[in-house]
Amino acid sequence: METVKRFGHRTFSSLKIRNYRLYLSAKGFLFLEPDADSCLGLLVLQLTHSGTILGIVLALQFLPILLFGPIAGVMIDRYSKRKMLYLTQSAAAILALLMDCFWFFGVIQIGMYMFLLFVWALYSYYSPTRQAFLMEW
Questions:
Q1: Which range has the worst mean pLDDT, 33-42, 111-120, 124-133?
Q2: Where are any strands of DSSP class E within the chain?
Q3: Is the pLDDT at 30 greater than 70, yes or no?
Q4: What count of other Cβ atoms lies within 10 Å of the Cβ of residue 53?
Q5: 67 and 9: one domain?
Q6: Residues 91 and 40 in one domain
Q7: What is the mean pLDDT of residues 120-135?
Q8: Contact 21, 15 (CB under 8 A)
Q9: Distance from C-alpha of 102 to C-alpha of 47, rounded to nearest angstrom
Q10: What's the pLDDT at 52?
Q11: Is the pTM higher than 0.85?
Q12: What is the pLDDT of residues 68-126, one digit of tens each?
């Protein structure tokens, strides 16, 4: 029984830190959301019936990470990581809501979709910010 207590104490010791509890609870909500990224390709194929445009859309989705990655590292070091996380998560939520509304009401067109994906470049700051934020604890 003592072994179980020691294991539980060491395993969950990170939960003593308030910021980590907040972060973990926020990440927990993401598991409730279905993996929408896997459906994006199907949406593009349904709208265009073109594999070429699907490739362009996927490039637009991941090109900002390549282009803005080095800039993200500099900005993360200069500004508040917490504020950057708030900004990137809020921007991602707004863009996802816009895409969902456009799709739900049947007004989405491929040009709108491509533009929203390129604006999604703000989200390319999320992963490096999250990693730097977690290392500060």
A1: 33-42
A2: none
A3: no
A4: 16
A5: no
A6: yes
A7: 76
A8: yes
A9: 13
A10: 92
A11: no
A12: 778 888 888 888 888 888 887 777 778 878 888 888 898 888 888 878 777 776 667 77
Torsion, Cα of 110, 111, 117, 118 (10° steps): 150
Return d(Cα 77, Cα 129) in angstroms, integer. Answer: 9
Residue 105 domain boundaries = 34-135
CA dist list (Å): 17 to 23, 30, 70, 126: 10, 21, 30, 21
Q: In whole angstroms, what is the distance from residue 130 CA to residue 95 CA? A: 19
| Tokens 């020691």 belong to residue | 6
Whether residue 21 is found in the same domain as residue 39: no
**Following CA atoms 117, 42, 32, 14 in sequence, which dihedral angle do they give, to the nearest 10 degrees?**
-60
- Regarding whether 71 and 23 lie in a shared domain, the answer is no
The count of structural domains within the chain is 2
Same domain, yes or no: 8 and 69:
no
- Considering the domain architecture, whether residues 75 and 129 belong to the same structural domain is answered as yes
Give dist(CA 73, CA 66) in Å, integer. 12
12 sits in the region (left: phi over 0; alpha: psi -120 to 50; else beta) called alpha
